Amino acid sequence: MNYRIFSLFAFVLFTSFSNIPSSNNSLLITPSKKIEKPISMAASVYETMDKKEFSMPSFESFNQALEGFYKLKEKGLVERDVITLIDFTKSSNQKRLWVIDLENNVVLFNTLVAHGKNSGEEFANSFSNKSESFQSSLGFYITGEVYNGKHGMSLKLDGLEKGFNDNARNRAVVVHGADYVSESFIKNHNRLGRSQGCPAVPVEMNEKIINAIKGKSCLFIYHSSKKNSLI
After folding, report:
1. Residue 163, pLDDT above cutoff 50
2. pLDDT-based confidence at 192, cuts 50/70/90?
3. By C-alpha distance, which of 112, 158, 111, 168 is closest to 137?
4. Which of 199, 98, 120, 125 is nearest to 157 (CA)?
5. Which of 45, 84, 193, 227 is the most exposed place for a label (fewest CB within 10 A)?
6. DSSP type of residue 21
């Protein structure tokens, strides 16, 4: 009986020591599960976003918007955790403006937005920073003052990128409502109406959007042809 117990003990002891790696291969670790790469901050925010019933912007446009937002935040230029993202790569017949609340990680609005009449027909493909060009300007902006103009409640914008949009205030490029930014206009003309360079929004959405983004928040107009100069 004792012999059997001793034999069993010896077998267990030998098996345990034989599984200890030698000094030559102790660093060769083969994980049992695949090691996933860490998710970037932008990807994490994007994937967990509460989009409600809305569509989401492309990740490329969102990633550039978020990186630029944090650069502006570091410089103290942005005072609110809100991003307005406009993707002029998309057709004007699509809802290509998003207002995103970063504090609560939720999409507040997703709606139509116009580009300048000399930037293109259905698609915007030409951009300018020049006065009287009637073209849209790409890049990062900070929202300025609210005022009442010929389009009613309007919001001034300050362009932050020299040579791309820093002439926005002089050009009177503002957020305002327009009746040509509507589904009915698209139905009658096969494309959205166009502005003189302003990111015009639907009349019924105008005050809601302006109240959500006023007070030095970040507005970013994206196009795939332009890289983010703030990164």
Report:
1. yes
2. very high
3. 168
4. 199
5. 227
6. P
Q: Find all residues with CB under 8 Å of 204, minimum gap 6, and list them.
A: 177
User: Which CATH number is 172's domain given?
Assistant: 2.40.440.10
- Flag whether 11 is in a domain: no
Domain with 138, as residue range(s), is 42-222
Helices (H), the chain: 2-18, 41-48, 59-74, 168-171, 183-189, 203-213
Contact predicate 142/160, CB 8 Å: yes
What is the pLDDT averaged over residues 99-112?
Answer: 98
Residues sharing a CB contact under 8 Å with residue 128, sequence separation 6 or more, in sequence order:
116, 118, 135, 136, 137, 197
pLDDT in tens, 20-35: 344 343 333 333 333 3
Domain annotation covers residue 92: yes
Does residue 3 carry a pLDDT above 70?
A: no
124 lies in some domain: yes
Instruction: Give the Cα separation of 83 and 113 in Å (integer).
Output: 15
| Degrees to nearest 5, angle at CA 166 with 43 and 177 | 75
- What's the number of domains the chain is made of? 1
Place of tokens 């990164």: 231
Q: Give a yes or no: residue 165 inside a domain.
A: yes
Mean pLDDT over all residues of the chain? 87
Residue type, 32: S
Is the model's pLDDT at 77 over the cut of 50?
yes
Q: What is the pTM of this model?
A: 0.82
Instruction: Give the three-state DSSP class for 146.
Output: strand
